[in-house]
Amino acid sequence: MTDELTPETPDEDEQPIKQRKNGLYPGVSDELAENMKSGWADTELRDLQPIEQAPNAARRRAALSARFPGERLVIPAGNLKTRSNDTEYSFRASTEYVYLTGDQTDDSVLVLEPTKDGHEATLYRLPRSDRENGEFWLNGMGELWVGRRHSLTESAALLGVACKDVRELAEALKEATGPVRVVRGHDAGIEAALADKVTAERDEELRVHLSEARVIKDEFEIGQLQKAVDSTVRGFEDVVKVLDKAEATSERYIEGTFFLRARVEGNDVGYGSICAAGPHATTLHWVRNDGPVRSGDLLLLDAGVETDTLYTADVTRTLPINGRFSDLQRKIYDAVFEAQEAGIAAVKPGAAYRDFHDAAQRVLAERLVEWGLVEGPVERVLELGLQRRWTLHGTGHMLGLDVHDCAAARTETYVNGTLEPGMVLTVEPGLYFQSDDLTVPEEYRGIGVRIEDDILVTDDGNRNLSAALPRRSDEVEAWMAGLKK
Fold first, then answer.
1. Tens of pLDDT, residues 219-258
2. Which residues of 334-351 are buried (b: 16+ CB within 10 A; e: fewer)?
3. What residue spans carry the region label Disordered (predicted)?
4. If phi over 0 gives left and psi between -120 and 50 gives alpha, with beta otherwise, what is residue 372?
5. pTM here?
6. Measured between alpha carbons, how far is 252 from 378 in angstroms, rounded to an integer?
7. How far apart are CA 269 and CA 312, in angstroms?
8. Alpha-carbon distance 116 to 199, whole Å?
9. Cα→Cα distances 328→59, 298, 311, 452, Å
């Protein structure tokens, strides 16, 4: 990575160049500065068509406008975050901003200005780098350093929203009058400009509303989730094909293999991949992925491709590393499969959201009592939650732009709500016997099993978006054997 120039923006009049402490060039000559101003082709993109999600985003903005009439609404995309020194993490725009615009550009802000008939939407973004003042090559965020940005005209054509220079926004917001709401936590500069105009309670109402708006997915979103799942299926196939190489290295080989599929076919992974081999499978969010991969153990792979529109899959399979379950592994796996079958069957319109969780937990409690690991009857176990020592987590969650989507929704709308067509959720029961759990027979210790699928609620029941990945133990073995031929 080159390090000659500072990331600071030069002053528009004097153009001083603030060097990095150990930069190799002492300055810029007048001749070079003048030379860099000219000789560049016109690269403006014309005849652009709106992106696919533009009409969907417009409908969402209209619904938001109707919910908060007469109020200025400010939804930032967020800013780059420093990883170390002068390098940044890869940028991921805020979910609320992406949902309402389809855009993913850092430092951008959507503002809905109240009008007599609703709201006028404006996207505030950084324009093209200025060639006249040298910004495009002297600024560390200039286009010769980080790549070309869309012009404001291009952005307006692509997104279907009027665009203005974001560098003017903070001052404009300071002068704004009337009620204002902002989505907090993404842009400190914008929040500072609105500090005397907003309240935490009103801002939280906006965040909650935008979370609940995403509970029902439209056709575009369902298509993107299916695309994410389909790529994820191929990623799981990739992993099975290289398990022998993972045995020679570590869980990192599995993580890298899946990430390659995600990066080639999508934007990224939707969350840190859990590539948990052996006893690591009993740690719910094992993302260190630095342990050994051994024949005879199980691999719990929980991973999801995120599409280039930022919708993510979330799928888990627990696989025998050598291709065959031992008798005990199969017994535990089959119990989890049976619990998942009961959970998926409970996913249907009109059912309580909690029904699929309760159905899966009942099956797991029954098996734990049957195996003598907890004293029955089953009703007592469920009433006291005793099964949770080995089941630990809830049986699923909403899925969408976030892996745990709609998380800010009200409890009465989410976990105490009712399933409706268009909802997408995971069903993911598990059993986890910790290596140091002296309450279970020694042979159980260090075995963890989870099976997770992404389920769409339909008009007449549900559709398993990830059904292409086998789940039944004998089908898993046959699938793995076929991939290794």
1. 999 999 999 999 999 999 999 999 999 999 999 999 999 9
2. bbbbbbbbbbbbbbbbeb
3. 1-29
4. left
5. 0.94
6. 40
7. 8
8. 24
9. 53, 11, 37, 20
